[in-house]
Specification:
CATH architecture of the largest domain: 3-Layer(aba) Sandwich
Binding site for ATP: 112-118
Radius of gyration: 24 Å
CATH superfamily of the largest domain: Mur-like, catalytic domain
Keywords: ATP-binding, Cell cycle, Cell division, Cell shape, Cell wall biogenesis/degradation, Cytoplasm, Ligase, Nucleotide-binding, Peptidoglycan synthesis
CATH topology of the largest domain: UDP-N-acetylmuramoyl-L-alanine:D-glutamate ligase
Number of strands: 24
Pathway: Cell wall biogenesis; peptidoglycan biosynthesis
Enzyme class: ligase
Shape: globular
Structural class: alpha/beta
Pfam families: Mur_ligase (PF01225), Mur_ligase_C (PF02875), Mur_ligase_M (PF08245)
Oligomer: single chain
Amino acid sequence: MKNMTLERITEVCGGVYYGSEADKKKEIAGAVIDSRQVESGYLFIAVKGEKVDGHQFIPQVFEKGALAVLSEQELSEPAGPYIRVESTLGAMKKLAAYYRRSLDIKVVGITGSVGKTSTKEMIASVLSQKYNVLKTEGNFNNEIGLPLTIFKIREQHEVAVLEMGISEFGEMHRLAEMAYPDICVITNIGLCHLENLLTRDGILKAKTESFEHLTPEGTAVLNGDDDKLCEKKMVNGKPAVFYGIGKEAKLAKTEQGEKYLAEKEVYATDVEPVGLDGTKAVIHIGAESFAVTIPIAGEHNVYNALAAVCVAGKLGLSVDEMKRGIESVKTIGGRSNLIHKGGMTIIDDCYNANPVSMKASIDVLAAAPGRKIAVLGDMGELGENEQELHAMVGEHFEGKGIDALFAAGALSENLAQAVGKCSKETEVHYFKTKDELMEELLPYVKSGDTVLVKASHFMGFPEVVGQLTK
């Protein structure tokens, strides 16, 4: 890793080095907190977790060829050099911030209430048509996952696409300080993490902490159809780049009454669903436009594609490269992932859920062929209005043509009751537990059905998907 000698690491972390002067000049080959991932020349960062203390694996990592260890403890007779620091987690963040700034690379930071991961996948797919791209893997978007992702950047990488997920005030400052993005994308300001952030204005404030950590020439790319983001027309003295459906500023009903949203620089027209196979649209950027088929269903994925086009435009891609990248994007497990099994189509969207993403997934199911079955569970971290917000999702069933709802969880009772009132065409099956739900769901489904599975992660709905795909 460029510029990452043990001497420099000690200096950046404010630690004390124990080891030979010769080793001090050596560069580490990688940095990890999982002892199983240690390779020759790596730095092992010993983190004390809730269940496991990484310090207990220090002897083994030296046996595996680790160059050095970052430790909070004094080590007696270690098999190699170590750097003692007050907090290994704090030192890791300092090190990630330093390493990112030492690299000649463009960084795209992505945040928002809904769609961070799918937007990240879309942007990475598009940019990879021109550049060597490193992207956040899985859900490595927090104060541990982000630095570990930054540590994976190597000299061959030309762009890093980094996802930043938060749930409290101040957290984005810490993440964006490490990422130091050239482009910051915010997908939307929705209804999630309300336990800590309280209101949508609170969410806006927390997400836009990222602006303070943009590079001097950095650009904000924002959803111009979002009634909160549309107000951020200037960011750090530079115009924000807005994207959305239709060029003109829309008149929208908001919490404060009617208002005009933003005019869009990058926009889509002629949006046309193609069932579960995707969505057709014409995308406009500057004086150019191109027709594209986004291979993932749902209008929300049109927005993801538009965000990617904004970023691609800033980084010099041609419209042909943009089109190719959009049309080759892949879904990932738990996020609008289509699984075909036993004549059924299962929409595996159970990684997480909030009211905005729930409604978007119901819209996708509504466009599906055959019998439409929604299997839904509780949404977490919604604060004091959690019951009303579940009922609001249930009200969204009205007129959608959903044949059956299977719902589980204490809060989902509110959702099920609302569906019963608003959508007489929908059979409503409510259960207190996921196990009770599965017991009735499995004999109910049949060939030709389309089944949406969605809930917050704590509900464990991947198990439902697992049973349906057995």
